[in-house]
Amino acid sequence: MTESLIWWSIAIYMLIAVGIALLARQGGAESMSGYFLGNRQMNGFVSAMSYSATTYSAFMMVGLAGLTYAGGVGALGFEIIYFAGVSLVAIFGPKYWAVGKAFGFVTPSEMLGRRYNSRHVAMAVSIASCIFLIPYAAVQLAGVGYLLQGTTNGAIDFTTGVVMATAIAIFFSYVAGIRSVMWTDSLQAIMMIVASTLVAFLVIKGLGGFGTLFDTLATEKPQSLTVPGSGLFSFVTFLGLTIPWFFFSLSNPQVSQRLFMPSSLKAMRQMLLGFLVFGLIYTLVSVLWGFSALVAFPSLESADLATASLLSSGFVPPVLGVIVLIGIMAAAVSTIDSIMLTLSSMLARDVYANINPAASEKRQLMVGKIVVPLIALMALGFAELKLDLIAVLSVAASSGLVAAVPAIIGAFYWKRGTAAGVLVSVIGTGAFVLFMYATGNSLLGLPAGIWGIIVSTALFIGVSLVTQVHSSSAVEFMLAISDELNSKRTSSQRSHEADRLDANPLKHAP
């Protein structure tokens, strides 16, 4: 795979993606809802592909493959736990959608501020999300940097890859907001799943087939097939990685914000089913890539170079390899621009607008657009630090974001939860996780990934029980969800009955 082939492929991808992004402008994006939520009119297919591309970013084909290379089969268990956590979308997704429609929420933090009747809650959750999501965005940029550096043997250096990914993400974000991001995501998701699956089969065939691959692992790397895994993993480490990941669909606002976007509950169901199919395939492919790299290149300097080494090897035809490379880069860009849009919407809606209550919708949108490149530049600076394994750094970010999970669950199911409980939980847990990572990430032998959910739950419940509850906002919030969902069910039942009568009118004639 030559440097010129990579650059030409990037240019062709950019031409196609820019064309799609420009077409997305037709829907208009002159309001906060239009720019950041696509006017809540996204269909099921686009929502599913975008949700998949945003979630399965550089973390998968670079990070999860690297984690498999370093830690063996435990990486599969780690990702399956996340996959199981997507069941939370089936529980909370309709509630997010309903309350978003009822109150016009743009951000998850705005939703929590309304539920707990506190602008300080909205501000605290927004700022905490920035603190932990900017490093996660940096992970995606680093994934592109490592990928281009590895596949070109350093001809395209790490910094060039990072800067290019940042520029592309900013461009897509500015063209038409979330509409351009979601439509380009659809292109990227299809590229990702088709090319990576095909390449996985070619690599495994080149190594002698599935039987030979796993026989070699069992003979030469038997520890990689033990549970929970080898080297990197112990049972405690495994729990520390998987617990925050289980709550990813709720704790990460760039993901939960998308629950406001589908045009209907039917579109949301299609989104979830499409994502589950995509996710299962992509998880298995990423793990197989990691195992294949372990057999083909057992002594890599960095586990995160596993995918790049495979793509630049003789196992993969150059044209197909570059398609996969572009797909992985596009997936990383998808996550970066989604994070940038989500954080900019939170800072504009929940920080700026709460400090300046008279700020108009137009003014909020302007502030949101100004913030986008600032967030991108901070992520770029963080990526240049080249910290730790990509997968581990991703989980570190999720360990801090999990601070909001008890408040989110309480918003829908516990009327006794209070604003004070949310504030202490989010701020206290965020500070605790940062302290743990700064001092070695261990307390009583347990990492922040385990302590985070324990501390946040204890603080939220404990403080809520000893502070005054604003019961009217809780009742209003929950009634709005019930009313919205019941009205949709009633409408659906009426539509079904009408279809049944139309199909056989004589049977129901008097």
How many DSSP-defined strands?
Answer: 0
Distance between the termini: 74 Å
Instruction: Give the radius of gyration.
Output: 23 Å
Give the averaged pLDDT, no decimals.
82
The H/E string reads HHHHHHHHHHHHHHHHHHHHHHH
Helical fraction:
over 70%
Q: Which spans have pLDDT < 50 for at least 5 consecutive residues?
A: 494-510
Question: In percent terms, what proportion of residues is strand?
Answer: under 5%
Largest sheet: none
Derived structural class: mainly alpha
Number of helices: 23
Shape: globular
Question: What does the model show?
Answer:
The chain is mainly α and 510 residues long. The chain is 77% helix and 0% strand. It is built from 23 helices and no strands. The chain has helices spanning 3-23, 32-37, 44-55, 58-71, 74-85, 87-103, 108-115, 119-151, 158-176, 178-206, 210-220, 235-246, 248-251, 253-256, 265-296, 306-311, 318-355, 361-383, 390-401, 405-413, 419-438, 448-465, 471-503. Helix 5 runs parallel beside helix 12, helix 10 (178-206) runs antiparallel to helix 17 (318-355) and helix 21 packs antiparallel against helix 22 (448-465). It is globular, with a radius of gyration of 23 Å. The protein starts with a helix and ends in a 7-residue tail after the last helix. The relative contact order is 0.18. Residues 494-510 have low confidence and may be disordered.
